[in-house]
């Protein structure tokens, strides 16, 4: 059972779901005001459970798409952000809401935002389930944050360690013996 590899649970499924309701309302208010139809772009693979939980609560018109960029090997940020799969929709002159599972060093979000600006997007915002500000190497913040987490490697609810644990319905910290 993969839950046995977890040392402690940081965020329960219920806490995450309740926060998604709040975030969705906040985001909805902002887009209703601007009248835009954003493209909600999930960054694969980590954003999938959070994105599913969030967008079903949006009551404003939006389109969805996905991109895959990768910058982690195990628990290490490898610095250079690679695009593994680009989005299908054209993003020129569109508003983009990037959905992330976590902002850690900030490198991924910096590169992704730069890329969207270069493609002629009108506006690029980001919603992230988790924020780990203690690890930042780039000056960047998400526009909407679910929870701040401490400087520990977290898994579950989309977040992986070597591709495992994404399917856990909560966010937790792995037992050290798993990755040491
Ligand atoms: O702020 P950063 O230090 O750049 O880290 C955050 C990024 O790293 C993880 O992605 P990863 O590259 O592991 O891909 P994944 O979503 O497929 O796990 C995570 O999903 C974020 O996209
Ligand atoms: O704490 C983390 N857990 C899983 N993936 C990650 N990618 C960046 N930080 C993390
Ligand atoms: Mg990962």
Determine the CATH topology.
Rossmann fold
Q: Mind describing the biggest β-sheet?
A: 6 strands, mixed
CA radius of gyration is 16 Å
The termini sit apart by 19 Å
List cofactors, ions and other ligands: 1-O-pyrophosphono-5-O-phosphono-alpha-D-ribofuranose, hypoxanthine, magnesium ion
CATH architecture: 3-Layer(aba) Sandwich
Q: What is the tally of helical segments?
A: 4
Number of strand segments:
9
Structure description:
This protein has 180 residues and is an alpha/beta fold. Helices cover 26% and strands 34% of the residues. Helix 1 packs across helix 2. The chain has one domain: Rossmann fold, CATH 3.40.50. Strand 3 and strand 4 form a beta hairpin. The strands form 2 sheets. Strands 4-3-2-5-6-7 form a 6-stranded mixed sheet, sandwiched between helices. The protein is globular, with a radius of gyration of 16 Å. The chain has 4 helices and 9 strands, in the order E-H-E-H-E-E-E-H-E-E-E-E-H. Bound molecules: 1-O-pyrophosphono-5-O-phosphono-alpha-D-ribofuranose (PRP), hypoxanthine (HPA) and magnesium ion. The site of 1-O-pyrophosphono-5-O-phosphono-alpha-D-ribofuranose has 18 residues, from strand 2, strand 3, strand 5 and helix 3.
């Amino acid at each position: 059972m993969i839950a046995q590899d977890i040392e402690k649970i940081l965020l329960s499924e219920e806490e995450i779901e309740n926060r998604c309701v709040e975030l969705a309302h906040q985001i909805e208010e902002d887009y209703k005001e601007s009248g835009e139809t954003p493209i909600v772009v999930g960054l694969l693979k980590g954003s999938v459970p959070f994105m599913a939980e969030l967008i079903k609560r949006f009551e404003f018109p939006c389109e969805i798409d996905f991109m895959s960029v990768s910058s982690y090997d195990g628990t290490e940020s490898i610095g250079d952000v690679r695009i593994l799969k680009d989005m299908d929709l054209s993003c020129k002159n569109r508003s983009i809401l990037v959905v992330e599972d976590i902002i850690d060093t900030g490198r991924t979000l910096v590169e992704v935002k730069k890329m969207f600006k270069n493609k002629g997007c009108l506006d690029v915002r980001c919603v992230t389930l988790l924020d780990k500000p203690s690890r930042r190497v780039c000056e960047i913040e998400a526009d909407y944050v679910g929870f701040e987490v401490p400087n520990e490697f977290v898994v579950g609810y989309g977040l992986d360690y070597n591709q495992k644990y994404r399917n856990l319905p909560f966010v937790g910290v792995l037992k050290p013996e798993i990755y040491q």
